[in-house]
Design brief:
253 residues; alpha/beta; Rossmann fold; 2 domains; 4-stranded parallel β-sheet; 3-stranded parallel β-sheet; 11 helices; 11% strand
Protein backbone atom coordinates (compact mmCIF):
# COMPACT_ATOMS: atom_id res chain seq x y z
CA UNK A 1 0.00 0.00 0.00
CA UNK A 2 2.75 2.44 0.99
CA UNK A 3 4.71 1.52 -2.10
CA UNK A 4 1.65 2.19 -4.27
CA UNK A 5 1.05 5.55 -2.57
CA UNK A 6 4.68 6.54 -3.13
CA UNK A 7 4.41 5.50 -6.78
CA UNK A 8 1.25 7.58 -7.15
CA UNK A 9 2.93 10.63 -5.63
CA UNK A 10 5.90 10.12 -7.93
CA UNK A 11 3.61 9.88 -10.96
CA UNK A 12 1.78 13.06 -9.90
CA UNK A 13 5.07 14.92 -9.42
CA UNK A 14 6.40 13.78 -12.78
CA UNK A 15 3.17 14.79 -14.48
CA UNK A 16 3.27 18.24 -12.87
CA UNK A 17 6.90 18.68 -13.89
CA UNK A 18 6.22 17.68 -17.48
CA UNK A 19 3.30 20.11 -17.68
CA UNK A 20 5.28 23.07 -16.31
CA UNK A 21 6.95 25.41 -18.75
CA UNK A 22 10.55 26.28 -17.87
CA UNK A 23 10.80 29.93 -16.77
CA UNK A 24 13.95 31.82 -17.75
CA UNK A 25 14.60 34.57 -15.20
CA UNK A 26 16.97 37.43 -15.99
CA UNK A 27 17.80 38.77 -12.55
CA UNK A 28 20.36 40.39 -10.30
CA UNK A 29 19.01 43.91 -10.94
CA UNK A 30 19.05 43.87 -7.98
CA UNK A 31 19.22 40.48 -6.30
CA UNK A 32 17.02 41.88 -3.53
CA UNK A 33 14.05 41.90 -5.90
CA UNK A 34 15.15 38.78 -7.81
CA UNK A 35 14.92 36.89 -4.51
CA UNK A 36 11.33 38.11 -4.20
CA UNK A 37 10.54 36.81 -7.69
CA UNK A 38 11.97 33.41 -6.81
CA UNK A 39 9.99 33.26 -3.56
CA UNK A 40 6.70 34.48 -5.08
CA UNK A 41 6.89 32.16 -8.08
CA UNK A 42 7.69 29.09 -6.01
CA UNK A 43 5.05 29.86 -3.39
CA UNK A 44 2.43 30.23 -6.12
CA UNK A 45 3.45 27.00 -7.85
CA UNK A 46 3.29 25.10 -4.56
CA UNK A 47 -0.14 26.61 -3.85
CA UNK A 48 -1.36 25.49 -7.28
CA UNK A 49 0.19 22.01 -7.38
CA UNK A 50 0.34 21.14 -3.69
CA UNK A 51 2.80 19.07 -1.72
CA UNK A 52 6.43 20.02 -2.19
CA UNK A 53 6.01 21.20 -5.79
CA UNK A 54 8.19 24.08 -6.94
CA UNK A 55 8.76 26.02 -10.14
CA UNK A 56 10.99 24.91 -12.99
CA UNK A 57 13.31 27.89 -13.46
CA UNK A 58 16.64 28.93 -14.88
CA UNK A 59 18.15 32.21 -13.70
CA UNK A 60 20.84 34.41 -15.17
CA UNK A 61 21.92 36.81 -12.42
CA UNK A 62 23.96 39.91 -13.21
CA UNK A 63 26.38 41.76 -10.95
CA UNK A 64 24.26 44.84 -10.31
CA UNK A 65 27.31 47.00 -9.60
CA UNK A 66 28.22 46.66 -13.28
CA UNK A 67 24.65 47.24 -14.47
CA UNK A 68 24.14 50.32 -12.28
CA UNK A 69 27.39 51.85 -13.51
CA UNK A 70 26.42 51.36 -17.15
CA UNK A 71 22.92 52.75 -16.53
CA UNK A 72 24.15 55.99 -15.01
CA UNK A 73 26.83 56.33 -17.69
CA UNK A 74 24.11 56.08 -20.34
CA UNK A 75 25.75 53.06 -21.97
CA UNK A 76 22.48 51.49 -23.05
CA UNK A 77 23.77 49.71 -26.17
CA UNK A 78 26.21 47.74 -23.99
CA UNK A 79 23.44 46.94 -21.52
CA UNK A 80 21.30 45.78 -24.40
CA UNK A 81 24.04 43.44 -25.63
CA UNK A 82 24.48 41.94 -22.17
CA UNK A 83 20.76 41.35 -21.75
CA UNK A 84 20.52 39.79 -25.20
CA UNK A 85 23.41 37.46 -24.35
CA UNK A 86 21.66 36.41 -21.14
CA UNK A 87 18.42 35.80 -23.02
CA UNK A 88 20.18 33.63 -25.59
CA UNK A 89 21.90 31.63 -22.84
CA UNK A 90 18.58 30.95 -21.11
CA UNK A 91 16.99 29.95 -24.40
CA UNK A 92 19.89 27.57 -25.08
CA UNK A 93 19.37 26.13 -21.59
CA UNK A 94 15.81 25.18 -22.46
CA UNK A 95 13.75 28.11 -21.16
CA UNK A 96 10.27 28.29 -22.70
CA UNK A 97 9.83 32.01 -22.02
CA UNK A 98 11.69 34.89 -20.38
CA UNK A 99 10.96 37.04 -17.35
CA UNK A 100 13.13 40.16 -17.01
CA UNK A 101 13.09 40.81 -13.25
CA UNK A 102 13.36 44.60 -13.43
CA UNK A 103 11.20 47.43 -14.70
CA UNK A 104 14.03 49.73 -15.77
CA UNK A 105 15.74 47.29 -18.08
CA UNK A 106 12.53 46.81 -20.06
CA UNK A 107 13.91 49.85 -21.84
CA UNK A 108 15.75 47.19 -23.85
CA UNK A 109 12.80 44.80 -24.22
CA UNK A 110 12.65 45.07 -28.01
CA UNK A 111 16.33 44.15 -28.32
CA UNK A 112 15.90 41.14 -26.02
CA UNK A 113 12.91 39.90 -28.00
CA UNK A 114 14.84 40.27 -31.25
CA UNK A 115 17.70 38.14 -29.88
CA UNK A 116 15.67 35.00 -29.15
CA UNK A 117 12.89 32.80 -30.49
CA UNK A 118 11.00 32.49 -27.21
CA UNK A 119 8.61 35.11 -25.79
CA UNK A 120 9.45 37.78 -23.23
CA UNK A 121 6.71 38.34 -20.64
CA UNK A 122 6.72 42.16 -20.48
CA UNK A 123 6.36 43.52 -16.95
CA UNK A 124 4.05 46.39 -17.95
CA UNK A 125 1.38 44.10 -19.39
CA UNK A 126 0.13 42.24 -16.28
CA UNK A 127 0.21 45.58 -14.48
CA UNK A 128 -1.83 47.31 -17.17
CA UNK A 129 -4.29 44.43 -17.31
CA UNK A 130 -4.79 44.47 -13.53
CA UNK A 131 -5.40 48.22 -13.50
CA UNK A 132 -7.93 48.00 -16.33
CA UNK A 133 -9.67 45.09 -14.61
CA UNK A 134 -10.06 47.32 -11.55
CA UNK A 135 -11.84 49.90 -13.69
CA UNK A 136 -9.15 52.56 -13.28
CA UNK A 137 -7.66 54.78 -15.97
CA UNK A 138 -5.30 57.35 -14.39
CA UNK A 139 -2.29 56.06 -12.47
CA UNK A 140 0.75 57.46 -10.73
CA UNK A 141 4.07 55.82 -11.58
CA UNK A 142 6.94 55.40 -9.12
CA UNK A 143 10.24 53.95 -10.32
CA UNK A 144 13.77 54.83 -11.24
CA UNK A 145 14.33 58.09 -13.09
CA UNK A 146 14.91 56.00 -16.22
CA UNK A 147 11.45 54.47 -15.91
CA UNK A 148 9.63 57.63 -14.87
CA UNK A 149 11.24 59.96 -17.40
CA UNK A 150 11.47 57.83 -20.55
CA UNK A 151 8.58 56.69 -22.71
CA UNK A 152 9.28 52.95 -22.96
CA UNK A 153 7.09 52.19 -19.94
CA UNK A 154 4.57 55.02 -19.85
CA UNK A 155 4.09 54.72 -23.60
CA UNK A 156 3.30 51.01 -23.43
CA UNK A 157 0.75 51.56 -20.67
CA UNK A 158 -0.92 54.25 -22.78
CA UNK A 159 -0.79 52.61 -26.20
CA UNK A 160 -1.49 49.01 -25.22
CA UNK A 161 -3.67 49.49 -22.14
CA UNK A 162 -5.18 52.96 -22.58
CA UNK A 163 -3.88 54.27 -19.25
CA UNK A 164 -3.06 57.88 -18.47
CA UNK A 165 0.20 57.91 -16.47
CA UNK A 166 1.24 60.64 -14.04
CA UNK A 167 4.81 60.91 -12.79
CA UNK A 168 6.12 62.87 -9.80
CA UNK A 169 7.62 66.32 -10.30
CA UNK A 170 11.39 66.67 -10.73
CA UNK A 171 12.20 67.00 -7.03
CA UNK A 172 10.04 64.01 -6.11
CA UNK A 173 11.50 61.92 -8.95
CA UNK A 174 14.97 62.62 -7.54
CA UNK A 175 13.84 61.46 -4.08
CA UNK A 176 12.27 58.26 -5.41
CA UNK A 177 15.33 57.45 -7.57
CA UNK A 178 17.85 58.16 -4.81
CA UNK A 179 16.10 55.90 -2.30
CA UNK A 180 16.04 53.05 -4.80
CA UNK A 181 19.73 53.24 -5.69
CA UNK A 182 21.18 54.26 -2.33
CA UNK A 183 19.00 52.12 -0.08
CA UNK A 184 16.61 49.55 -1.51
CA UNK A 185 19.00 47.78 -3.89
CA UNK A 186 21.30 47.34 -0.87
CA UNK A 187 18.47 45.94 1.25
CA UNK A 188 18.17 49.07 3.42
CA UNK A 189 14.55 49.79 4.35
CA UNK A 190 14.21 53.01 6.35
CA UNK A 191 11.12 54.49 7.99
CA UNK A 192 12.13 57.99 6.89
CA UNK A 193 12.20 56.85 3.28
CA UNK A 194 8.79 55.24 3.63
CA UNK A 195 7.45 58.57 4.86
CA UNK A 196 9.07 60.31 1.88
CA UNK A 197 7.37 57.89 -0.51
CA UNK A 198 4.05 58.38 1.26
CA UNK A 199 4.35 62.12 0.66
CA UNK A 200 5.15 61.59 -3.03
CA UNK A 201 2.15 59.27 -3.36
CA UNK A 202 -0.12 61.83 -1.67
CA UNK A 203 0.95 64.50 -4.15
CA UNK A 204 0.24 62.18 -7.09
CA UNK A 205 -3.21 61.45 -5.67
CA UNK A 206 -3.84 65.19 -5.29
CA UNK A 207 -3.09 65.51 -9.03
CA UNK A 208 -5.68 62.88 -9.91
CA UNK A 209 -3.96 59.49 -9.63
CA UNK A 210 -6.57 56.80 -8.99
CA UNK A 211 -3.90 54.19 -8.27
CA UNK A 212 -0.14 53.92 -7.80
CA UNK A 213 2.19 51.64 -9.76
CA UNK A 214 5.22 50.44 -7.83
CA UNK A 215 7.24 50.54 -11.03
CA UNK A 216 10.55 49.41 -9.63
CA UNK A 217 10.87 45.86 -8.39
CA UNK A 218 12.54 46.99 -5.14
CA UNK A 219 9.82 49.44 -4.07
CA UNK A 220 7.67 46.59 -2.74
CA UNK A 221 10.32 46.15 -0.05
CA UNK A 222 9.42 49.63 1.28
CA UNK A 223 5.84 50.47 0.28
CA UNK A 224 2.62 48.50 0.71
CA UNK A 225 -1.08 49.20 0.34
CA UNK A 226 -1.04 50.63 3.88
CA UNK A 227 1.09 53.52 2.61
CA UNK A 228 -1.36 54.73 -0.04
CA UNK A 229 -4.92 56.11 0.05
CA UNK A 230 -5.55 54.62 -3.42
CA UNK A 231 -4.94 51.09 -4.75
CA UNK A 232 -1.31 50.05 -5.15
CA UNK A 233 -0.20 47.80 -8.01
CA UNK A 234 3.06 46.01 -7.22
CA UNK A 235 4.76 45.12 -10.49
CA UNK A 236 6.98 42.49 -8.87
CA UNK A 237 4.06 40.43 -7.59
CA UNK A 238 1.93 40.93 -10.71
CA UNK A 239 4.83 39.93 -12.99
CA UNK A 240 5.67 36.87 -10.89
CA UNK A 241 2.04 35.71 -10.85
CA UNK A 242 1.80 36.19 -14.62
CA UNK A 243 4.90 34.02 -15.00
CA UNK A 244 3.27 31.25 -12.96
CA UNK A 245 0.11 31.41 -15.05
CA UNK A 246 2.21 31.26 -18.21
CA UNK A 247 4.14 28.27 -16.86
CA UNK A 248 1.14 26.30 -15.57
CA UNK A 249 -1.77 27.66 -17.56
CA UNK A 250 -4.75 29.51 -16.06
CA UNK A 251 -6.11 28.15 -12.76
CA UNK A 252 -8.51 25.30 -13.41
CA UNK A 253 -7.17 24.71 -16.92
Amino acid sequence: MRRAARALRTDDAERAMSEQALIGLIGGMSWESSAQYYRLINEAVRARLGGVASARTLMWSFDFAEIESLQHAGRWPELSRRLADAARALEAGGADFLVLCTNTMHREADEIEAAVHIPLLHIADPTGEAIKAAGLSTVGLLGTAFTMEHDFYRGRLLKKHGLSVLTPDADDRAIVHRIIYEELVAGRVLDASREAYRAVIARLVDRGAEAIILGCTEIMLLVSQADSPVPVFDTTTLHAMAAVERALGPPGA
